[in-house]
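Project channel, design review

CF: Before we commit to the Actinoplanes flavus constructs, I'd like one complete example in the thread so the newer folks can see what an input/output pair looks like. Taking GNAT family N-acetyltransferase.
RD: sounds good, go ahead.
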Amino acid sequence: MRTHPQLAIRTATPADQQTVSELLAEAFLHGDLADWLIPHLDTRARIYPHYFALHVEHALTHGQVEMTADATAVAIWYPIDAGPLPELPDYPQRLADITGRFHQRFATLEQTMHDHHPCDQPHHYLAFLAVHPDQQRHGLGGTLLQHHHARLDATGTAAHLEATGVRNRRLYARHGYLPRPTFSLSDGPALYPMQRTPRS
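CF: and here is what came back for GNAT family N-acetyltransferase:
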C-alpha cells in the first residue's frame, strides 16, 4: 500500500476555494459517474468547476477540507452526529442554475445518496477524495486517508463513503473499509457504500 507519510497536509481555507474546486473538477471529469451526469465532455468541463465550487463552499463552512500543501490532492469530510447537515442558502436553486438541463441527474444523485446514508451511529463521511490526474496512482489519496484515519482511530469514530467503481473499492478496501449493501441510481450506475470501524 503506497503512501507518503511525510507528505505535508493542511486544512483548506476560504482562500483555497477556487483551487480546490478546479482540482475536483479535473479529477472527476472522466469519473465513473461523469457520463451519466453530463454525457457531453465539453459541457461537463464547463459545468463541473461551478458545481464543485458549490460543494467546496459548503464543506468549508460545515465540513473538513484537507489537502496536500501543493494542492494536488484533497479530501472532504463531514462529521455526522445527529440530523442532517445544514444546507447553503438557496442551495436547490443554485444547483439548478449551475447544472441547467442536467439538474435532474444531479438532484437524483444527491437525494439517492441521502436516502441510503446510515444514521445509526456517529461517523465521518468522506464526500470527496480527489487527486489531480497527473498525480494519480502515486499514493496521495491513500496518504490523505491515513492522515484522517489517525484522528478517527484516536477518537473511536467510524467512517463512511460511497465508492463509484472497482478501482475505488479496491483503494478503500486496502484502508480498512468493508462493503455495505449496494444501491443504484435511477436508470444509472451503481454506488458501493463502504464503512470503516476505528482501530484501537
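RD: helpful, thanks. The CA atoms of residues 83 and 158 lie 17 Å apart.
CF: Helices lie at 17-28, 34-37, 41-62, 91-99, 103-115, 140-155, 166-174.
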